[in-house]
Amino acid sequence: MKKEFIDLGKQPIANRFLNEDELENEFFYNLKMGLDEETLLVSQMETVEASDMFNENYVYHSSGTETMRNHFNSTAERLNLLFSPDRVLEIGSNDGVFIKHFNKDTTVAVEPCSNFAKITNEMGYQTYDEFWNYDTSDKILKEHGKQDLIYAANCMCHIHDIEQAFLSVENVLSDNGVFVFEDPSLMAAYLRNSYDQFYDEHVHLFTITALNNILKKTNLEICGVDQINHIHGGTNRVFVKLKNNKKVSKDENNINTVLADEELLDLNKMIAYEFWAENIQNSKMFLYDLLASLKKRDLKLVSYGATSKSTTIFNYCNIGTDIIDYIVDTTPAKQGKLSPGMHIPVVSYEEGWTEDVRGAFLGAWNYSDFITEKEKAFLGRGGFFITHVPEVDIVTKPTCIPCGANKEVEE
Ligand code: DWN
Fold first, then answer.
1. For ligand 1, is residue 291 a contact (CB within 6 Å)?
2. Residue 370 CA: which ligand 1 atom is closest?
3. Burial of 67 (0-12, 13-18, 19+ CB in 10 A)
4. In this structure, how many other beta carbons lie within 10 angstroms of the beta carbon of residue 315?
5. How many CB atoms lie within 10 A of CB 385?
6. What's the predicted TM-score (pTM) here?
């Protein structure tokens, strides 16, 4: 049975940036998170139709930041070295930032957002603009055979029927193949109170404990876990293989260490989530009060990065244009639009990052090391950033938030 632990209120589609004439019919849903007491999986109590989130109007580019381009580059290199796969499949290939490192003739992709599937098809990678499910895996099996490396980044936690998604992987994974997927870590979000990882696209937020429980219903098993602090505010890269695959080794110590850490934090008990809910409600209060008091001093406040994460924050904390003048973002498809729900204008960096900006909310806090380093001059002339991770705070020096405790970025 799934038990609700936090209600984040009425929320819009996190990546649906709007024109003035689209505001009236904007779609909203109730974002509530619950714990399944059998599998210990944390998921939304009420979900949004997949095609309402992922379609030809999707705007998020995985290659949109230097940090992520470098990440997918080094990940591709490492997986190639570790597994030297013949046949490669990527699930959720977005704009091809990962698959571009593999051979076009032996690599296929699945991407339901047809505007992005068009990009990778034009790059020469056969891309199925479909959702990942058993039928799609069957089609790939028939047309391309079993796959030696299957990769999915920030995709599995977007899929409602996660058990079927794994069975579909099992269907097309070769006997000695490996499935590698990356998604935000619930444990990292819990420790940093980064509750903005809860938004429509993130139907689930995974612990390794919950993934283990779900995979028990398949012939797949986890054989390794990388905990990557600097990516998306804390990401798990999970390695999975068929149970009878003896070619790929299983790192029991590594897996048991993560499971033990999750247990230590009681992430397999409702009490931890009730505690988290209190932290979230307090964070909301502190953030609103801080921003409102800064605004009372007539300081020009903007937001840095029109992230999906900040959609949750602004709508849950009721932060609108009465506090934030606009959001600066480098993504052309978001510029000139209004942010989901709170309708804060999104402008280009060139247009919005002006001398009179005094404070900026770190919507893209997961890149705080890069952003605060880049904006040293802004900090040097008395400007400041506002963050809610790991607690509501003012940032006045180059800082790396994912490093924890706002440690200064080494020169
Ligand atoms: O799961 C998902 C994660 C992987 O990415 C997707 N469902 C949606 C998306 O979530 P997000 O929007 O929170 O992702 P990011 O990568 O934190 O978004 C960064 C945004 O900030 C982009 O719109 C680009 C912008 N940005 C900027 O304007 N200036 C980023 C940096 C670093 C900058 O300097």
1. no
2. 32
3. middle
4. 23
5. 23
6. 0.97
| Ligand 1 lined by 64 (C-beta under 6 Å) | yes
Do 230 and 402 form a contact (C-beta atoms < 8 A)? yes
CA-to-CA distance for 398 and 97, rounded, in angstroms?
Answer: 28
Residues 264, 7: Cα–Cα separation, whole Å: 25
**Burial class (CB within 10 angstroms; exposed 0-12, middle 13-18, buried 19+) of 277:** middle
Is there a contact between 363 and 387 (Cβ–Cβ < 8 Å)? no
Query: In angstroms, what is the C-alpha Rg of the chain?
Result: 21
| CB-based contact 311:8 (threshold 8 Å) | no
For residue 308, give the amino acid letter: S
- According to DSSP, the residues that pair with 393 across neighbouring strands are 387
Which of 94, 182, 329 to probe ligand 1 with, by most ligand atoms within 8 A of CB? Answer: 329
- Residues 84-104: tens digit of each pLDDT: 999 999 999 999 999 999 999
- How many angstroms from the chain centroid is the CA of residue 166? 19
Q: Determine whether the shortest distance from the Cβ of 370 to ligand 1 is under 6 A.
A: yes
The pLDDT tens digits for 229-266 are 999 999 999 999 999 999 999 999 999 999 999 999 99
Tally the C-alpha atoms within 13 A of residue 124's C-alpha that lie toward its C-beta. Answer: 7
Cβ atoms of 278 and 271 within 8 Å: the answer is no
Sign of CA dihedral 9, 5, 198, 202: negative
Ligand 1 pocket: which of 58, 314, 330 to mutate (most atoms within 8 A of CB): 330
- The DSSP secondary structure of 81-142, one letter per residue, reads HHH--SSEEEES-TTSTTGGGS-GGGEEEE-S-HHHHHHHHHTT-EEE-S--SHHHHHHHHH
Q: How confident is the model at residue 402 (pLDDT cuts 50, 70, 90)?
A: confident
Q: Residue 173 and residue 149: Cα distance in Å, rounded?
A: 8
CA distance 205 to 198: 8
353 lines ligand 1 (CB under 6 A): no
Whether 190 and 263 have beta carbons less than 8 Å apart is answered as no
Tokens representing residue 167 in the block: 């069975």
Q: Is the CB of 303 under 6 A from ligand 1?
A: no
Residue ID of nearest Cα to ligand 1 atom 17: 364
